[in-house]
Amino acid sequence: MSFKYSSEPVSRRHPPETFKITIRKARDIDMEDLFQFLHAKGKMTNNCRMAIMAMNIIINHKISTEHPIIRNSFYTSQEAKSLSGGIEAWQGYYQTARPTRGKMMINIDVSTTAFYEGGPLIRMIAKILGLRSLNDLCKELSDKDRQKVEKRIKNLKISDNHSPENKQKFKIRKLTQTSASHTMVDVDSSMTDVKTFFQNKYNKHLLYPFLPCVVVRKNEYLPIEVCDVIPGQRYMEKDTNLANEMTNFVRQNPNIHADKIKAGLNILNYKENEYLKQFGMEISNDMAVVNARILPTPTIQYHQSSRENRIQPNGGSWNLRNKKVINGATLGSWSVLVFSNSSDQAIKLFVRELIITCQDTGMNITDREPLICRENPIGNTEESLKKAWLKAGNKAKAQPQLILCILPNTGSNLYAEIKRVGDTVIGVATQCIQNIHMINPKKQYCANVCLKMNVKLGGMNSFLIPEHIQFVTDEPTILMGADITHSSPGYSKGPSYAALCGSMDAKASRYAASIRVQPGRTEIITDLANMVKELLKAFYQTCGRKPKKILFYRKGVSESQFMKVLECELTAIKDACQNLEANYKPTITFVVVQKRQHTRFFPIQGADRTGNCFPGTVVDMNITHPHPLEFDFYLLSHAGLHGTSRPTHYHVLYDQNGFDANKLQVLSYNLCHTSVRCTRAVSLVPPVYYAHLAAARARLHSSECSKSGEITFGVVKQELQKVMYFI
């Protein structure tokens, strides 16, 4: 490989450009509308939005000149945590101005994200390759390793260090395919290699001439060891291992979390901020103290034959001991498909323990010795599943109901392919088990698997007693949850996946899903009217009656999109009803559910064992929306497991069902005890939680045609659409 290499400094070949900047006054910031809005005397106007935007610019300006800032968060390397592969976690702080009842407040929270480690590029490459030190970097890279390194460092910003008086900044385009000692360059019509060039030109002896060079511009490159990574560059790629490392770093119990926020206030130092003073803004350094209530815990009903057929959970969780599911499914035709290298003895032990648990929980397992099939985890997964399906059917002389898949401890691609084939090609329920959980089967784990299997086979696990779900039991009522899942960051051309889930009975225990593929990054569910029609028809076919009430929970909407989503999607819901029948006009309540928000609660008196607020804690004053009619509340429905619990924000945008805050709070909290996946109160109401799962599953239903390169999307088989296949 050879390049034309100029001996002239880069600065001479690329002189700095001159820009002319003109600043014009656009408009005055009118604060009067905002004051009226804060005191519930006016609506949210463009003047209000402009005033809040101006406040955010003012409070963020000083800190943005001192630290890297990403949207409303700034980050500092003071407490950086080194992760694998040359990546490190930086702790930072989120801050934004928010309107509340009677005043503006600042929402501050701890925020963490991943950055590339600054410093020598050679050190980062050693970490990418998993080497213990630079001493282990002693030979030429294989093609596989070179591609691995190139993928990680492409587009990374670097500076050179071989000429201190004339340092330059670059962006990495790629790596050369040959080493520095074998990459030839044309210097003043004479060919030489990069190693020799740097020795002659800069008196720089390369210690790693066997490594490739970095291409920074067309026909311009640098040896890896003369490059330094510029600090403060965010790492954006999706990486499961790094995500797990980040999660462990981020988890902080409430006391530590609160102390971190106070430390952030010291960094922000509002009292000494000259920009705030110039605009006449004053911000307190104290956390707001708000009143909260703890909602009563509902009662959960199991099968009447259970030794404990009713349970009132304590602390947000319970177990299946002495309890049987309401309607246990019968499993008579199934097989076990093993992708791990576990022994037959370990597999049979797990299957036996799982069967015992299922039987004790009320399921009927008629085939207690399912066939065990072994397949290669990197082989043809579709063929493997078809073989297991055929063997199960031939043995039972009946339609196969389930394939239990045992996976190696990692392998999201294998999981995705299993679900694609099971859901859209064969039409059989699949239950995946990680090998690590199979080796030492625990009773609670088997119980959770049993709950999933039962609903995938058409069974029902439990329900709330009628008085705790009265809004649903009084009249035919459908609960709906909607969510959109987008493609991974950096894949802007990828589609988005929308899901709508609806309850199918008066107990709000069974749900059906409708999914769609739509243009990427679209926040509105484009085919919502037809999706609503599908679920209303399914409800009628199941219950024999049309819903008189619709409670619609919508996840994944930012505040700036509230009105647009309400306008488009409420119209779609009403159109769906009128298309079914001209005079069909059920009453509708439209609630936005936000999980990814930065409000945190730290109990002053009384806490659970993790230091968090008790399950059922609700806050509906002080920090909520200025207008009581557009009521919102924060509900912490689940028990803390690790770190600081995140409350869910519920915001009612439209209500024809006459809810007051307390009725909707209690109903939403009670519904959080009906998740079919576990014996815990969950953090999101199940309709929208299921929609989130269904949208994520829809992403797995895509496949790429090897000939055309086009993406095709499979349709869920009819036999699975009647059950909760997405659980």
From TrEMBL:
Phylogenetic lineage: Eukaryota, Fungi, Fungi incertae sedis, Mucoromycota, Glomeromycotina
Recorded superkingdom: Eukaryota
MF terms in GO: RNA binding
Residue span(s) of domain PAZ: 120-231
Coiled-coil stretches noted in the UniProt entry, renumbered to this chain: none
Pfam families linked: ArgoL1, ArgoL2, ArgoMid, PAZ, Piwi
Similarity field: Belongs to the argonaute family.
Name of the protein: Piwi-domain-containing protein
Domain Piwi as annotated: residue spans: 402-703
SMART domains for the chain: DUF1785, PAZ, Piwi
